[in-house]
Amino acid sequence: MTSAEWLQEASAGTMLEAVRRHGRLPYRVVARKYRLTACAVFRWLAAKCDEPAMVTAVEACERYVDGGIGLSAVEAAIGELTKPTPVVLRDEDELGTLDPLSAAHHARHAARALAAPAPFSAAYDSAKAWGDFVGWRAPDRSTHLASLCPILRDIFGNPFGPVVLDPTWRTSTAVAIARQMDHSRDFSLMPILADALQDVGCDNPDILDHCLGSGPHVRGCWVVDLILGKS
């Protein structure tokens, strides 16, 4: 896949495969980003369900990815998903005929995969499981194909046209803004981050356009990770 094709691709499944085959990103980086991809899609579905246990589980998975909690805490959160609680889906028109029981099943599968000890395979299998569930490859779910691709571009950036960060742009102000967004998962400060970067001479269009764009932005956003030294 070329850089231009990555930016135009409309299949999230194809994008995941392209990253896997690319093989040029450091193992620790791509494994973490695969985990966060699964978390982002997990959170996307959890937001459409009246099921607090799903939100708790995805938050535990996100904290586990960066070492905020241990595996036992993740397993406890996952354990709540094994209880036979009905999962009520919102936005039925958008989600079509998704079965609530199927949603709960895939939530458990994704969370368990995220907690598995082998990060790359677990993260990839988890993301793929969600892809199969929401129809990343299904031609009759083109809305999902289109809506999930921006999440991958937010997390991975453009692996076929990588950006090199000038160390002078990593000021204490930029780092503080990025850290606040990473911690709170509130990315409304992205334009402020762009201002802070421009103030110290950042003129990279990929970075600035991403900060000033409409998003979405999720945990693992490539610009935030770049500022924090996580990618």
Task: Walk me through what this model shows.
With 231 residues, the protein is mainly α. The chain has two domains: 3-156, no CATH class; 167-228, no CATH class. 65% of the residues lie in helices and 0% in strands. The protein contains 13 helices and no strands. It has helices spanning 3-8, 12-22, 27-46, 52-65, 71-81, 92-95, 100-114, 119-134, 142-156, 172-184, 190-199, 205-212, 222-228. The longest helix is centred in the N-terminal third of the chain and has 20 residues, at 27-46. Mean pLDDT is 77; it is low at 92-98 and 134-143.
Secondary-structure class: mainly alpha
Quaternary arrangement of the chains shown? single chain
Low-pLDDT sequence parts:
92-98, 134-143
- Distance from first to last alpha carbon: 21 Å
User: Could you tell me the radius of gyration in angstroms?
Assistant: 18 Å
Number of domains: 2
Query: Major sheet, described briefly?
Result: none
Q: Please tell me the overall pLDDT.
A: 77
Strand content: under 5%
Report the order of strands and helices.
HHHHHHHHHHHHH
**How would you sum up the global shape?**
globular
Please, how many helices?
13
Please give the share of residues in helix. Answer: 55-70%
Number of strands: 0
Topology:
Elements: H1 3-8, H2 12-22, H3 27-46, H4 52-65, H5 71-81, H6 92-95, H7 100-114, H8 119-134, H9 142-156, H10 172-184, H11 190-199, H12 205-212, H13 222-228
Features:
13 helices; mainly alpha; 231 residues; 65% helix; 2 domains
Short description:
With 231 residues, the protein is mainly α. The protein contains 13 helices and no strands.
